[in-house]
User: What shape does this take?
Amino acid sequence: MAKLSENHPLTGISGTLGKQLVMKQYDGYTVVSKYPDMSRVKATAVQKAGRKDFKKAVAYAQAIIRDPDKKAAYAASLPRGKRVYTAAIQEYLSKNNPSS
Assistant: This one.
């Protein structure tokens, strides 16, 4: 992991460069590290279930956004500044996961 000086051209940049380098910000410094190898990481059953639920929530939110009538009706019920997409995801997850 390399820490860049403040006058380096990559200072302040975040993201990846291909699948080789990752640039992150920590305490005002830009840190460059190698791309993580996640090939040996195994998701637990709870993580898999959560990802499946979130995938369904995204599909639900996208269906609302694609239909102009549904989107307008949904937006009318939201407070100012709240987005339809995130509110729809939140609603889906709260209705389908009452324990969380």
User: Anything to note?
Assistant: Residues 45-96 form one domain. The longest strand covers residues 21-26. Strands lie at 2-3, 15-17, 21-26, 29-34.
